[in-house]
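Quick one - inputs below.
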Amino acid sequence: MLRKCIVFFILGLLMSGVGGVSFAKSTVTVLGVWGGAERDAFIKTLEPFEAAAGVRVDFTGTRDLPAVLTTRVAAGNPPDISVLPNPGQMQEFAKIGVLVDLGKFMDVSKLKNEYAETWINLGSYRGNLYAIFFSADLKSLVWYNPEAFADAGYEIPETWSELIALSDKIAAAGVAPWSIGLESGAASGWPGTDWIEDIMLRIAPPEVYDKWVNHEIPWTHPTVKRAWQLFGQIARSEKYVYGGPSTELTLNFGEAPNVLFTMPPRAYMHKQATFIKSFILKYNPDLVPVKDFDFFPFPSIDPEYGTPALGAADMFAMFNDTPEARALMRYLATAGAQEIWVAQLGKLSANRRVNPNAYPDDLTRKAATILAGSETFRFDASDLMPAAVGSGSFWSGVLDYVGGEDLDSVLERIEETAVEAYKG
Amino acid sequence: MRTKKIIPWLYLSPALAVLGFFLIYPSCHTFYLSFFDRTSTKFVGLSNYIYVFSNRVMITAFRNNALWVAVFTALTVFLGLVFAVLFDRVRYEVVVKSIVFMPMAISFVSASVIWKFVYAYKPAGVAQIGILNAFLARFGISPVAWLIQRPWINNLCLVVVGVWVWTGFCMVVFSASYKSIPKQLLEAARVDGAGEWRIFWSVIFPLLIPTLSVLATTMIVFVLKVFDIVYVMTNGNFGTEVIANRMYKEMFQFRNFGRSSAIAVALLLLVTPVMLLNLRRIREER
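Output:
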């Protein structure tokens, strides 16, 4: 009886765990936010790597990335490579020492040639490079329907006063000039933050923007207040926005451009980043880029500050230093990999060596040229701020302000959370 | 002799071990963490608790939870009782009870998505996709953006979703209780000349009070934890914040472990009196 037990026990051991150890590890686990079309595009980007290196990439996409990643890092089980939601979180991970220094196995000087200084700085902590930028979006764009503009005889505005004059003209004709959609589930309010950030860049020098991001000036500062007021001049107005503030608060950001393409149009302009192209095509598959929908740069406000570019990007960082993960990181940084990625979706690449012809259409190419050529470029502020502000009080502040609340009390409330959040 | 005393403990020990590891240890650890800062490295004493009980958003959350407790409990219990008593008297009882109970089969998240469409708002003059606004449009009333009307309408709209899901539960429990009332009692009352209304208040209702108190306490403890509905429909914006949603945000989005632990402990403190009341009632019944 006892002998039988021992035999079965040993057999059990052999069959369960021990057998698995004999296979060599040739997979890389990657965690990201992408689902649907974006996920397919990423899988396609990985195909040349998997074929050449003989390594399998195990990609998991989750919209709840911050929570999942934080939990896995805390549990000591991080993915080999992960997309990071924003540079702020990358800095926090680098500070606690869970990220692998890319300089150990990547040619940083070559990367410095391929990526502009801003991208290298944003991916570094204390002089060491920890993250590379993969997918970029340009935000300072106003989308419009060229045919609707031509029919009504409207001109593209180049200054804020021209923009307001155009909005008045359209409103006088009985149509809403702007379509704004702030709803985004748990992230509602973020499109408003893009407005305010672009305005900040156009009413003060970029150094003031940087101070605002680092909380060296308070939220109640007159420049910040002016940015909000300019945003409110359009966003809180019943006549300027399609459906008024009530619609703005409940309209999903992905559906907001749709009213530009109805017959007759119910709105004429929509400020949004480059990624909105895939949403426009999803809801209106018959539209042709450039002919049926196009964009113009968000106009300047105070002419001395011009039209800086505001953008955001997804970054990859490495948590486990394995040879397979190293190979994948090297691959992802190359222009070749990024050409495959941008060719499919209309996203932009931060890599200067990406061939412009890789972009699927002239629209994306135009945006890539603006991004590469802009004198002043700044990363999205709400992504750089601590989460309690950037993904918290800033978003809800926008909703409260558009909902009718007094600006001073909104700014004071954000300032309260900022004072706490920037301490830790 | 001694083995007889130990044996019950031996039988209990696996369950106690599981309880200890998954319930008692985490609770103690949370309580411990609530006195530290956001990364659990620096002792900060009571400052997290001061935040929990004085911060503007938290006070809104407490107010909203109070609203949920009052309205959700009252409506589910009241409607459950009404349905149980009334449906008992009709031939198609099984059909209606099934219909009322069906929402229990779906998760809170699914219910929230459904009701998000019910409350959907489009500007006046455009085709309404939300049932409520489409209904209003039939009568020429301009549409209402239900989920952004503060302070009470949007909260009540969210409570309605919860009531829609859980009334079936209360109805079923009341129904079981109601059907166990001996028919002779009711007949005797009728023979004595009592009207239906009198019978309900003097005979039926007193016999249902134990069930009612069980259901009320269960619903109260349950609704203090409400999270999914608020998270999916408004994410706590527009003045609809609740305690559990705050805890989630502080923990996973803002990564402030001290504060989220303090919120969790505050929630536990809120639930404890209700649980003690329940326990005392059970003991009295014995």
